[in-house]
Amino acid sequence: MQSDYAKQGKTAAIVAYITIIGTIIAFFMNQDDKNQFASFHIRQALGIHVSFYLLGALASMFDSWAISSAFYVFIFVLFIYGLVTAVKEEQKPVPILGSYFQDWFKFI
After folding, report:
1. C-alpha to C-alpha distance for 29 and 10, rounded to whole angstroms
2. Helix %, strand %, coil % for the chain, to 5?
3. What is the pLDDT of residues 90-107, one digit of tens each?
4. Burial code of 14-40, b = ≥16 C-beta within 10 A, e = fewer?
5. Residue 47 in contact with residue 104, Cβ under 8 Å?
6. Which residue, of 14, 61, 68, 93, has the fewest CB within 10 Å?
7. Which DSSP category does 3 fall into?
8. pTM of the prediction?
């Protein structure tokens, strides 16, 4: 558990993982106070959503249930990992891509 600072941004962090609309809502929720904990998780959630659409377009090129299933399992694991770390008030990047999301979305 982190300080009260993480607790203040916890709601926005959790909302960010609930669909792309939730990420947009969390972004605007975080505009006034710019909580670093919430910003971290908004960047992670936005990265997962962008990855879902980009990798989904790539996976759809293949007519293979194995590739599609592996893609959906990968994205599902990233979502669950990010959501659990937000609920536990931790700032751990999601596996494989999380550190890239922090670099790519610094504007948040």
Report:
1. 11
2. 70, 0, 30
3. 888 988 888 888 888 888
4. bbbbeeeebbebbbebbeeeebebbbb
5. yes
6. 61
7. -
8. 0.85
